[in-house]
Amino acid sequence: METIAITANEAGQRLDRFLKKYLRAAPLSLVYRLVRKDVKVNGMRRGIDYMLEEGDEIALYLDGARIDELARRDAASAGRAYGAGFRRRPKIQFKVCYEDGNILAVSKPYGLLTHGDGREKKDTLVNQVVGYLTDRGEYDPSAERLFTPSPTGRLDRNTTGLVVFGKNSKAVRDFSRMVASEDAVEKYYLALVFGAIEEELTLEGSILKDEEKNRVKVIEANDDKNPAKPSLTIVRPLGISRGADVRYTLVEVNLVTGRPHQIRAHLAAEGYPIAGDPKYGDRSRNRRFTQRFGITSQFLHAHKIIVKKGGGSLEYLTGAIMESSLPQRLVEITETLGVSI
């Protein structure tokens, strides 16, 4: 038998979801069976939807070797996410834009993954943030069974700017709920697009994702055969280049809904692709853009978050503004084109 004391970072989640993360190798069907027969919380049987509270004790009536097998406990997993498993800490590349006891907002640089993928697992924004908080004594990987400071959203590798992390599980959940409500948090991006945008645009095409190709397309209609997600992007022009063969507009984009590649796809569908965008952009104009400025990816930067209404443990954030300035190489492009903010 093993007894598990629930910490503050593990509270607030359903019993079955906690056990599925704790026993990573266990299929969900086994987790359900364990809850019925081999699990007690504070000495009592509980349903799968029981919400765990700090201080609860879970008794898991299994042989120790079986628990180790289901939890995948071995030397390789001891340094989960960041810690003893890494001899060299990833170098800190981000800039801190806002920080308090619960939230850390950082500016992600160009070329850095938010999460790891099949090619890069160590040098990621998540691991850099974990290292930063570990060095400051705000996170101890050896003391946490399941929780790792986590981003409440993500940016593509080559999109720069703001990413908000929760330092504890409650902060992650509360900020994620605020973003999902679509009226509590406003997110703004800066983008350089091909073409002259003279007035504010409201783009409402639904987003349909092709998982295999990792691309999306914008469609007008939505039905059961075409389950696209309604999307809303508001585009405000800040400056238009003058006297050149290729016209550019620097825009501020209010991302009202947060669909994958939404800004890039919406602007391209409207006829104003983001300069340098290799996936949704204009190849011919991108080639000339690259030759002139040396940029091979989209000019897109997450530059501001406004908290209109805080919630839960983050009510105090109401009115907070988090900002990330444009990287210098993008500033130089706007100055050259005469579209600086």
Per-chain topology:
Layout: E1 2-5, H1 15-22, H2 28-37, E2 39-41, E3 57-60, H3 64-71, E4 95-99, E5 103-108, H4 125-135, E6 150-151, E7 160-166, H5 169-180, E8 185-194, E9 201-203, E10 206-210, E11 215-219, E12 233-240, E13 248-255, H6 262-269, H7 283-293, E14 300-307, E15 321-323, H8 328-337
Parallel strand pairs: 7-14
Antiparallel strand pairs: 1-3, 2-3, 4-5, 5-7, 6-7, 8-13, 8-14, 9-12, 10-11, 12-13, 14-15
List the defining traits of the structure above.
341 residues; alpha+beta; Structural Genomics Hypothetical 15.5 Kd Protein In mrcA-pckA Intergenic Region, Chain A; Pseudouridine synthase; 3 domains; ten-stranded mixed sheet; three-stranded antiparallel sheet; elongated
Number of domains: 3
Distance, first to last CA: 63 Å
Mean pLDDT: 89
- Count of beta strands: 15
Helix/strand/pairing class, anyone? alpha+beta
Q: Please count the helical segments.
A: 8
* Poorly predicted segments: 75-86
Under the CATH scheme, which architecture of the largest domain would be assigned? 2-Layer Sandwich
Can you identify the CATH class of the largest domain?
Answer: Alpha Beta
> Which percent range fits the helix content?
10-25%
CATH topology name of the largest domain, in short, is: Pseudouridine synthase
Largest sheet: 10 strands, mixed
Strand content: 15-25%
Radius of gyration: 23 Å
Overall geometry comes to elongated
- Please identify which CATH superfamily of the largest domain we are dealing with: Pseudouridine synthase
- Element string (H = helix, E = strand): EHHEEHEEHEEHEEEEEEHHEEH
